Amino acid sequence: MKVHEYQARDLLTEAGVPVPASSVVETTDQALAAFNEIDGMVVVKAQVFAGGRGKAGFVKLCKTADEVREAATFMLSNKMVSVQTGPEGIEVKKLLIAAAVDIESEYYVAVVMDRSRRRPVVMVSREGGVEIEVVAKENPSAIIKQWLHPHLGLLGFQVNQLVAALGFTDKVQAKATGKVIRGLVDVFLKYDCALAEINPLVRTTAGEVLAIDAKMNFDDNATFRHQKLLDMCDPSEEDQLELRANKANLSYIALDGNIGCLVNGAGLAMATMDIIKLHGGDPANFLDVGGSVTTEGAIEAFRIILSDKKVKGILVNIFGGIAKCDTIAEALIAAAKEIGFDVPVVVRLEGTNVDRARQMLKEANLDVLIPADDLTDAAEKVCAKVA
Amino acid sequence: MSILVNRETKIICQGITGKAGAFHTAACIEYGAKFVGGVSPGKGGTKSEHGLPVFDSCHAAVAETGAEVSMIFVPAAFAADAVMEASDAGCSLVVLITEGIPTLDMVRARHYLDEQGTQLIGPNCPGVITPGQCKIGIMPGYIHKAPGQGAKNVGIISRSGTLTYEAVWQCTSRDIAQSTCVGIGGDPVKGLNFIELLDMFQADSETDGVIMIGEIGGTDEEDAAKHIGEHITKPVVAFIAGQTAPPGKRMGHAGAIISGGEGTAGSKIAALREAGVTVADSPAQLGEAMQKALAA
Lengths: 387, 296
What we know:
The structure holds two protein chains of two kinds. By secondary structure, chain A is of the alpha+beta class.
């Protein structure tokens, strides 16, 4: 789960991390009021999940009320298109109006889960304000790391070492930076983050240490214990089909191709996409129906697949373990009656109750269903059908 | 021989009176696994539907039954605690089936288990099976072939459940038996990983080769590749799922995500091939590739 920049800022503020004065607005008039209140230069920033805001013109430094009006009106009435949004772009509903500060130097501070060491790691760099992936690739020694102890967290001396690595020598500034690092770690642990990042953290010409931009991702497995995060959730920013699938306990991700996939198990679902590609086709989606799938759940899965109008054929690939082949067969027959398939459906079933499932499909005698013997046969058949 | 579990292994189930726990315990017993009891707080002193004694705590269960392994079906919010309880009670191996456990919970639980010297399989996994002897988990038993029933025996290590069944089925259909199959799970922080299990299979006299099934996310496969190049002499065949997965999207499993350019299938496949591993392009070619590798 993701939250907007302004929400991440709120969580940082709560943890004692200083940020420039700011307000969140939804109209141009509100933007002007916020500008008057801040009483100085501001940065107007579109609140969307996608990156690439700056290049798209959705982050603007404004000196006057006229500039604020122009920027706010533009952002609220145009869709933002960037590398991350796709060509159709996304609508902007909220803006952050933040006091602009005179920056002397920029830093990077983040906490992220280190999978191979099985604990969170704090990463800092003097090269703030740029993409950290680029720094990691071109100048890895510029990133300094300290790992959290699984039970004790970040220890005092580690904070000191990180602050020193950032080059803070002034006592007051060093103390303020230490507080920022501790605050970010607190947020990470308290809210089960997958990533908590301040980029950039800045030192102003006046010697203040401030978090200018923040990004946070949360562990979806842990949101059940964070009502505050659930309240922050913005369903309008999520893919609507993915949300609908979620409600039906299905794991669905839309892709660009034209072959719909219905599979049990995440690994097999990915492998099914791979084998379609290997045989010259293009998957329209990732869809894992899960182990405890019901007939109704599987019918909903077919509805979701078919609501993607790009879909020209469907591949059903089930290796029954906990999930039973006859459940899927029942769903196929019901879906054929209820929704009606207007595209060919290649069906490959193996595992638990497969004989019963095959018998059911045979008796139903549905023209649109094409049985496949194995995975390769299934991929070949569905690719040939949509070609 | 086999690794981790065999027909003598004494097992309890934490969550034995829950729907999933009861169902799968029954299936494991039917397969031949030696279950000796279960844990369900508040139901101590009763019998499970399988006729097994139920205890309030793992400590009581282990003390009374001498269980060595616990299979856990406890809901995600309480699962990490259940794992630590099993460890403290003296289980040497914990098989954690539950999915959806918060990553930070697993960070803490895994550290606790390491300090106690307890091995963990999972979470978010199908479990472990030594065909013909012992099944601890949710995999369909009948697709497997026990050592001695096939021409050769392979060990299987996998991050994915159903893809493991696929590999097992392809082997069984080609007269290749399985010594032990371990589903290590799809989460970012887990217990036993490729490297430890590769070493166990390398040391197991009954295992002739190993199939490893990885997927996008993290760098476990790259680490395993380095290890194989240096330490594993038995043939290894691999498949990496998610070659067509888009970056930044979590593909079902919590751990299956390409982030910051790390965790791509391409990087894993290249590392494995460099280490001399046969990487199948298609998930349908695992059995065939293993057959060729064993004949070579």
